[in-house]
Amino acid sequence: xxxxxxxxxxxxxxxxxxxxxxxxxxxxxxxxxxxxxxxxxxxxxxxxxxxxxxxxxxxxxxxxxxxxxxxxxxxxxxxxxxxxxxxxxxxxxxxxxxxxxxxxxxxxxxxxxxxxxxxxxxxxxxxxxxxxxxxxxxxxxxxxxxxxxxxxxxxxxxxxxxxxxxxxxxxxxxxxxxxxxxxxxxxxxxxxxxxxx
Length: 197
Description:
Blueprint: H1 10-32, H2 34-47, H3 71-108, H4 113-144, H5 146-181, H6 185-190
Helix pairs in contact: 1-3, 1-4, 2-3, 2-4, 3-4, 4-5
């Protein structure tokens, strides 16, 4: 049976682990199919380049949107899309590992169960969502261009980073308050036990 102090952070731990797992899946896929993915990104960018018709894609419905002027510009943004995909995997691994570590830290504190639960969940949710913004940019940039793709996910990225950093800041402040003012009524609201005088 699970120790009571870990139950409140379980959802956060699972989200952190999920983030690590999908980041590793991305890394494996990108490593195995790097050349194919790069070629597909370039082909998609060429479909949206003025004066170019990609054989076999003439019937696609979005081909009237021409984003790029030349092959060189299409290649530049296809390469940028590949960088975005790699950032998705790197952010997923880093944020997933940090989320797990911070959830474990939250678990060993004497914070109330509800405070632990919300801190762990909010932090891990932000960590899980943010890498998908980079993944979206990698997939959509050859189709729409960098600025239109970034506009699509701007608020999702801002929201997920706000959740992640907000939870980290709250935890830091709560730990500082516990250390330097552990007997106050305000601190007792967040903790099961106030620090001994």
